[in-house]
Amino acid sequence: MEGKRDFDHLTQEDKVMISDSWGKVYANADDIGVPILIRLFATDPSSKQYFSKFKDIEDLKELEKNPHLKNHARKVLKAINTMVENINNAEKVTSVFNTLGNSHALRHKVEPRYFKVLSDVIVTVLGETFTEVMTSAVAQAWRNFFTAMCANFNDVYQEVGWNGN
């Protein structure tokens, strides 16, 4: 995994809007993470197949209370937080993408398309939940961020020889 991963294509304005808005979002991480994953599963039910500890729970209300779901929601938001905090630090961002990309490709065997689905869900849920923060410009900055995130994950998947098995 030699490739450099970064958010260099984002404008400085994008980076500022992402950092500023994320502070408000991450302050509410425990309240926003579960709704994001619940929306992911409602939007694309096949995404639940990768979660052995709760993939068989059909009732979304019951799933909301599942401690394993809450734990994974925290992990997702913590990973995004690390990327946002290090948005200008290619070395740290590369490390995060390599670690997460490796585990999702090789251990969990998650199809890379789910990163795009999750990204779209996050922008939607943030827009609905943080209406005062997620202006159209901020939402576009986040879409740009997630486009870069997905491209970085795709690069890792390619480097590890992802073949879907």
TrEMBL record:
Q: Which Pfam families match?
A: Globin (PF00042)
Identify the residues that the record assigns to the Globin domain, covering every copy.
9-158
GO terms, molecular function: heme binding; iron ion binding; oxygen binding; oxygen carrier activity; superoxide dismutase activity
EC number(s) reported in the record: 1.15.1.1
InterPro entries for this protein: Globin, Globin-like_sf, Globin/Proto, Globin_lamprey/hagfish
Entry's PROSITE patterns?
GLOBIN (PS01033)
Q: Which UniProt keywords apply?
A: Heme, Iron, Metal-binding, Oxygen transport, Transport
Reactions catalysed, semicolon-separated, are: H2O2 + AH2 = A + 2 H2O; Fe(III)-heme b-[protein] + nitric oxide + H2O = Fe(II)-heme b-[protein] + nitrite + 2 H(+); 2 superoxide + 2 H(+) = H2O2 + O2; Fe(II)-heme b-[protein] + nitric oxide + O2 = Fe(III)-heme b-[protein] + nitrate
The cross-references to PANTHER family, in alphabetical order and at most eight, read: CYTOGLOBIN, CYTOGLOBIN-1-RELATED
The text of the family note is:
Belongs to the globin family.
Protein name per its UniProtKB record: superoxide dismutase
Q: Gene of origin?
A: LOC114467893
